[in-house]
Amino acid sequence: MKILIPIKRVVDYNVKVRVKSDGSGVDTTNVKMSMNPFDEIAVEEAVRLKEKGVATEIVAVSCGVAACQETLRTALALGADRAILIETDVELQPLAVAKLLAALAAEEKPELMILGKQAIDDDANQTGQMLAALLDWPQAAFASKVDIAAGVATVKREVDGGTETVEMKLPAIVTTDLRLNEPRYATLPNIMKAKKKPLTTTTPAALNVDVAPRLTTLKVVEPPKRKGGGKVADVKELVAKLRTEAKVIT
Ligand code: AMP
Description:
It contains six helices and eleven strands. By secondary structure, it is of the alpha/beta class. The strands form two sheets. Strands 9-8-7-10-6-1-4-5-11 form a nine-stranded mixed beta sheet, with helices on both faces. Strands 2-3 form a two-stranded antiparallel sheet. The N and C termini lie far apart (about 65 Å). It binds adenosine monophosphate. The site of adenosine monophosphate (AMP) has 22 residues, from helix 1, strand 4, helix 3, strand 6 and helix 4. Adenosine monophosphate binds near residues 38, 116 and 125.
């Protein structure tokens, strides 16, 4: 079974994001970029399926600028067998990514695609769902457990107030939730080995996909600054402030 893992290069989760002074977006100059954390979980799940003998090949794919190669090398160091970069400088929105992945799936014919449930930069939570619709494949989003046997995926999903277990025939789409697994770290020997694994590049034009943005960002603003706290002398003052300033009691 071949598994395709779409991986997004995003601003590292430890970085405090800064908005550009003209409000047109987020400043990414000299900012540390990493693999989207939910995609690390997707890679880990695929590697575990391979270790169990369920999967035979793991292909990591990223859509974006040339620097995404770095993120793909990380996926290779974590256990992917080969990688594909769909290279473009256009800022990609989820629908464009879903179209690119659908076109690639038609060529690669994977039986399973595992995506992150959302990218931590745009927080869209759309690509997996759009991809399932474009391919007309079943989907299980927000997975916390995945079992595969006899061409059927049994997936436990996180839903409001609990979990739900669904069964779907392969080929299928899964998106990862936090509880699915704990990703491993890449070891130094594996980082070295990853340098020799195949990484090929293609383009949206070669896949015949129009990636022009459909949405326009009007303005990006920082959240309001938190006001500092204060100390009260006694309960009487606290109650008075709750009544007159916070207006949460009458
Ligand atoms: P989103 O719908 O943007 O929140 O992203 C959900 C998931 O789609 C991510 O966790 C990735 O698995 C995949 N994805 C989104 N954008 C890209 C991209 N540019 N390249 C590869 N995969 C992507």
